[in-house]
Amino acid sequence: MAARERLICDSGALEEGGRGVRFELQWARETTPAFVVRYDGEAVAYLNRCGHVPVELDFNAGEFFDFSGLYFVCSTHGALYAPESGACMGGPCNGRGLKKLRVFERNGQVYLIEGSETHE
């Protein structure tokens, strides 16, 4: 399948370390929740699925960061993830990180590059 761009949101919807924007995509032939946030000035996106067990990270829609604003936190299990890479930083994720998605910004909008993912 050829990669294609898909509009996710306006860039202004993402504040540094703030709420994320949830969206869905087709992943392994299933509709799967995902999210995009702004971290260190960049839009970053991941499947909304804890590395520990496949539950969504956010308890309140769009709230992915811990209280410090330094890590993503699974609201169910407390697993911590690095926003820049999705790597497991502690908790029950036991080294299993988040699945990162390719996004970019152009003309004030955030796009997902669909069809370029690996389904590991």
Task: Walk me through what this model shows.
With 120 residues, the chain is mainly beta. The protein has a single domain (4-114), classed as 3-layer Sandwich (Rieske Iron-sulfur Protein). Helices cover 0% and strands 41% of the residues. The chain is built from no helices and 10 strands. The chain has strands spanning 4-10, 21-27, 30-39, 42-47, 72-73, 80-81, 88-90, 100-101, 103-106, 109-114. The strands form 3 sheets. It has a 4-stranded antiparallel beta sheet, with no helix packed on it. The chain is globular and about 35 Å long. The mean pLDDT is 91.
Helical fraction = under 10%
Which fold does the CATH topology refer to?
Rieske Iron-sulfur Protein
Largest sheet: spatial strand order:
2-3-4-8
| Uncertain residue ranges | none
Order of helices and strands: EEEEEEEEEE
Average residue pLDDT:
91
